[in-house]
Specification:
The protein is built from 15 helices and 14 strands. By secondary structure, it is of the alpha+beta class. It has two domains: 3-52 and 280-411, no CATH class; 58-267, no CATH class. The strands form two sheets. Strands 1, 2, 3, 4, 5, 6, 7, 8, 9, 12, 13 and 14 form a twelve-stranded mixed beta sheet that branches. A two-stranded antiparallel ribbon has the order 10-11. β10 and β11 form a beta hairpin. α2 runs antiparallel to α14 and α13 (326-367) packs antiparallel against α14 (377-403).
């Protein structure tokens, strides 16, 4: 049998039962569409996060307490480590220790609710330097002002809040100058950020920012920092600055062996690489889970093909009677199975791309940020190949069963 005739025969067999053919490939369509959607969203998230991280500038260095995490289970240990304190930051500012350092700002994470009257809201809360954060992300209050070094030194109970926090607590009224309550302490609102959206791992619109010294004293009762953000004078001096920072902290903590470090230093490039790896692994994991539906779809293809072989037994007998060989019958049914799943792969890619485009618009609106659509060419190509392979693997048994039918018995079939 030549290929052209085989393709035409297989196409006629598929077209004869359009509804059944569509239901046969539905599992393939869903599986491929899901993979395309997940990979596209994963690429979009990676691009968005990496763009925001890179927006911090190549001159950024972050000092964190505890051992450097090697997996998700180690992150909690970093959050509760208490090895970076005020004396360490003061040592870093000494020119002889880190000559390339131009600015630094400790930060602590605060959990809990904020309230005003009867209104209660759960925002993202940081104790930080407002001026350092505003300079990093280029966002400044739409109302009021930022708190400065004087407020940090005085442990003033002041906050700068995001637009969503103002909306949730004050319902259209101005928050500037009013007092909000955090853990039974009153904080005066001195500034309100404009609507800005997502940056890094938090949303500025849902942010409550206070002096880190205030958060340590009144809310957390700690004398250490969760991280220290630093800028160096030139991105070309990053490696030298990291070396000086590590040497300074080791000297402060009496550490001789780097394996005993109770802190770690990250650069912008290091963060970019880690985020890229984490998102890639997560996308691969989710795609692998979804790929199970392809196996289910393949089993469905095999079942329907077996039904088709049974229904077309007389056809098989007639073809064998006029000279078709076992190989011709095998080729016909196998080609039919591959064409079915290939079509399912193409339809799945189309549906997946459509859903990915819709999702990118929806996520852009929901996050109030630019979520770009990313067409996963490699995933689409893999989807076509895998769907065809599914047709080959799961169509082989029905095709072989069809090819082995006796022409005499097949012609007697009613």
């Amino acid at each position: 049998m030549n290929i052209k005739y085989g393709v035409r025969t297989a196409y006629d067999g598929i077209r004869t039962n359009k509804a059944r053919s569509f239901l046969t490939i539905l599992g393939i369509v869903i599986g491929i569409a899901s993979i395309i959607l997940i990979v596209s969203i994963g690429k979009g998230a990676e691009q968005l996060i990496l763009t925001q991280v890179e927006g911090m500038g190549a001159d950024m260095v972050v000092l964190r307490p505890g051992k450097q995490p090697t997996g998700f289970s180690d992150i909690s240990g970093t959050l509760f480590a208490d090895s970076i304190k005020e004396k360490d930051v003061e040592a870093l500012f000494k020119k002889g220790n880190v000559p390339d350092l131009i600015s630094a700002a400790p930060a602590v994470v605060v959990t809990g609710n904020v309230s005003y009257g009867r209104e209660v809201h759960t925002p993202t809360m940081f104790g930080w330097s407002a001026e350092f954060m505003a300079d990093m992300f280029n966002v400044y209050p739409e109302q009021g002002v930022l708190f400065g070094e004087d407020e940090i030194n005085q442990k003033a109970r002041v906050v700068v809040i995001g637009s969503k926090v103002e909306e949730e607590l004050f319902e259209g009224e101005r928050a500037l100058g009013r007092n909000i309550k955090i853990r039974d302490h009153n904080f005066r609102v001195v500034g309100v950020f404009p609507q800005y959206g997502q940056v890094m791992f938090f949303n500025i619109d849902d942010l409550v920012l206070m002096p880190y010294s205030t958060a340590q004293t009144y809310l957390l009762g700690i004398d250490y920092y969760h991280e220290v953000m630093m800028r160096v004078n030139d991105s070309e001096n990053i490696d030298r600055a990291v070396f000086d920072i590590e040497a300074t902290i080791r000297e402060r903590h009496n550490i001789d062996d780097p394996e005993d470090d109770d802190f770690f230093v990250e650069t912008q490039q290091g963060v970019v690489d880690q985020i890229g790896i984490i998102l890639s692994v997560l996308t691969l994991f989710l795609s692998s889970v979804v790929a199970i539906s392809l196996v289910v779809g393949g089993i469905g293809v095999m079942n329907i093909m077996l039904v088709s072989v049974t229904e077309r037994t007389k056809e098989i007998g007639l073809r064998k009677a006029i000279g078709a060989t076992n190989k011709d019958i095998l080729f016909q049914f196998l080609l039919e199975s591959i064409m079915l799943t290939f079509a399912g792969g193409v339809v799945g890619i189309t549906v997946g791309v459509f859903l990915a485009v819709v999702s990118s618009f929806g996520l852009s609106y929901a996050l109030n940020d630019s979520w770009s659509f990313s067409f996963p060419f490699s995933a689409a190509l893999l989807g076509v190949v895998v769907s065809s392979a599914v047709g080959l693997v799961f169509g082989l048994y029905p095709a072989r069963k069809a090819s082995q039918k006796s022409p005499i018995e097949a012609l007697r079939w009613e």
